[in-house]
Description:
The protein contains three helices and four strands. It is α+β, with helices and mostly antiparallel strands. It has a domain at 30-93: Beta-lactamase Inhibitory Protein, Chain:B, domain 1, CATH 3.30.1450. The protein has a four-stranded antiparallel beta sheet with strand order 1-2-3-4, with no helix packed on it. It is elongated, with a radius of gyration of 20 Å.
Amino acid sequence: MFHLSRSRSVQLLMVATLCMATIAITGCSDPKVNRTNFNHIDIGMRYAEVHHMLGAPTWCDDYDRPKECRWGTEERHIYVVFVARRVVDKQSKGL
Length: 95
């Protein structure tokens, strides 16, 4: 039977906790929410094109007829304003 010393068990537990915390922090951020994709969003682009590039938005003011949508978290996001389902403004934070 395999037996670990108490100090070795504590070390393994600490490493496992650190790994899980790292995965939780990085796993919650959408890899599509990045500076490159933000730069590819052009004024006049259709909502469907932005949706195809970034996936489903995290938040929209109205999912049937979106006027403002955000992809990502409050701290790290791409925010897009639409008129007639076309991009009229875009902003980013934390990219």
